[in-house]
Amino acid sequence: MSSPVAASRRTGSTTRAASPTGSMPTPDLRIRRGVIDDAKEASRAHTDTWRISYRGLVPDALLDGLKDDRWENGWRRGFESMDPTRVVHVAEIDGRIVGFAGGGRARANAPPGYVGEVYALYVRPEHQGEGIGRALLKAAAEGLVERGLVPIVIWTLFDNPASRGFYESLGGAVIGEKREPFEGYELHEVAYGWLDAAPLVKG
């Protein structure tokens, strides 16, 4: 799981996310760098997304046992470390965090040659399909490019067709698999890689 870090002040831009149907625009979406004060709300969004989006993909007992603050300490530690290779962005609508993405130097289990990694990319289920995930991934990839952390790898659940289809639509290639222990269970994950970050950073 991720422990992202970002700038210590709130900065960002407001954009209009594309509607899934193209008819009714979504509310103004703000993508900004995260700060330590976001830790509690980001952890809650993280947990809520797992509970709903991963239902049927991982054991119910795992999801039902997750607490709202499951990732809060990790977020706080990440912010406080101020590691310059880390980057995290949050997506806000009307001041509420509806998604986030974190990345940095690739972890030890990354396939050989991949130096950058998007550790986490989550959007609250009620806002999926609005272009928020794409906007967050773009921001994360831009941060990795700025830090010279390319090629880029992203891990996702092996049995998550929505997530896998999203990465494949952006040119991601399957480059590895792993079994990851988590909360007494084992998660089957697959890695997608990009030798060139251009498909991720284009508008």
What is the secondary structure topology, with strand pairs?
Layout (H helix, E strand, L loop, with lengths): L11 E5 L11 E6 L5 H15 L6 H5 L7 H10 L5 E7 L2 E10 L10 E8 L8 H15 L5 E6 L3 H9 L3 E10 L2 E10 L3 H4 L2
Parallel strand pairs: 5-6
Antiparallel strand pairs: 1-2, 2-3, 3-4, 4-5, 6-8, 7-8
Task: Please give a handful of descriptors for the protein shown.
8 strands, Aminopeptidase, alpha+beta, 203 residues, globular
Question: Would you give an account of this structure?
Answer:
- This protein has a domain of 139 residues: Gcn5-related N-acetyltransferase (GNAT) (Aminopeptidase, 3-Layer(aba) Sandwich).
- The chain contains six helices and eight strands.
- Strands 1-2-3-4-5-6-8-7 form an eight-stranded mixed sheet, sandwiched between helices.
- Helix 1 crosses helix 3.
- The chain is globular.
Give a brief rundown of this model.
The protein is built from 6 helices and 8 strands.
